[in-house]
Specification:
single chain; Protocatechuate 4,5-dioxygenase, Chain B; eight-stranded mixed beta sheet; two-stranded antiparallel sheet; 13 helices; 10 strands
């Protein structure tokens, strides 16, 4: 069966794509963000997912105020990069995975999520910037992509809880797919920012960092926030953070954080990237103590503990037992 192996939260600031496209990644303004990304890129390269489900919001490229689907899924073989008014980005077009996309569509609709089906859909910076963040500047993207658009433009958008529940439905669909695939899922947008009105330019670092912390350890707080709370704390465009809940709903309740970068400011936005793997099944203290050293090290690393076979076994054992609350 297919399996979700990783979850990513990532901002999709258009200026990040422009910085990459125009060779600005090492100038003073952009260096702190781009210098941190190789570790995340190595992590996802090592995982080698076959498919990336990428959740984002369209910015009047494929849809407009004349047609506003709450959730839309792209089921095409290819998705072209949209011209957002300054020409198409000179990056690879996005290859889809129609078989899995149609399977997810059918499963989710039958489970009560009425997805709009997009047989043709250009993808804009909401989709392409995260791909640049994850993979840099390849000749072709190394994964097939299933784009899922969420309305966070026209009120009312879906609630964070509804997004979380959609993530659970997507996971169910993936695990029922008749094929061996490694699947990653990314929720994009945010973090705190506002582009208009009296609070234009607002950034709330305390809220953003708490959101990232809670995403890992106490996501009920994020999931149960109202629209008003998101907009009050993170700005009008901060409502995009509900899309990260689709990613979180598709993961295990317990996850291991593998990478995090929070950078202020990226253009006029707080930029965040966080990477998760599902936490391994918890073992009893007796099972852990009985593990041979290579197995113990592997288990420790899966729990997010840095361990190596050259470390003293008793030190690694102590860290694992402490992490799981056994000592």
């Amino acid at each position: 069966m297919a399996k979700i192996i990783a979850g990513i939260g990532c901002s999709h600031v258009p200026a990040v794509g422009a910085a990459s496209d125009h060779g600005k990644t090492e100038d003073g303004y952009w260096t702190p963000l781009f210098a941190a990304l190789p570790a995340a890129r190595k992590w996802i390269k090592d995982l080698a997912p076959d498919v990336l489900i990428l959740v984002y919001n369209d910015h009047a490229s494929a849809f407009s105020l004349e047609l506003i689907p709450t959730f839309a899924i792209g089921v095409a073989q290819w998705f072209e990069n949209a011209d957002e008014g300054y020409g198409r980005r000179q990056i690879p077009n996005v290859e889809g995975h129609p078989e899995l996309a149609w399977h997810i569509t059918e499963s989710c609709i039958l489970d009560g999520f009425d997805l709009t089906i997009a047989n043709k859909m250009d993808v804009d910076h909401g989709c392409s910037v995260p791909l640049t963040v994850f993979f840099g500047e390849p000749a072709a993207w190394p994964v097939k992509v299933i784009p899922i658009c969420v309305n966070v433009i026209q009120y009312p958008p879906p609630t964070a809880r509804r997004c979380y529940d959609l993530g659970k439905a997507i996971r169910k669909a993936v695990e029922e797919y008749d094929g061996e695939l490694k699947v990653a899922i990314a929720g994009t947008g945010g973090m705190s920012h506002q582009l208009q009105g009296e609070r234009s330019g607002v950034i709330n670092t305390e809220f953003d960092v708490n959101y990232l912390d809670n995403l890992r350890d106490n996501n009920d707080v994020n999931r149960d926030r109202s629209h008003l709370e998101y907009i009050r704390e993170a700005g009008s465009e901060g409502i995009e953070l509900v899309m990260w809940q689709i990613m979180r709903g598709a993961m295990n309740e317990k996850v291991v954080e593998k990478f995090r970068k929070y950078h202020v400011a990226s253009s006029n936005t707080a930029f965040g990237v966080i990477c998760f793997e599902n936490a391994p099944e918890e073992k009893s203290a007796a099972e852990i103590k009985a593990m041979k050293e290579p197995v113990l090290v592997e288990y420790a690393n899966a729990l997010g503990i840095t361990a190596h076979v050259n470390d003293l076994k008793k030190d690694t054992l102590e860290k694992v037992l402490s992490k799981l609350g056994y000592s």
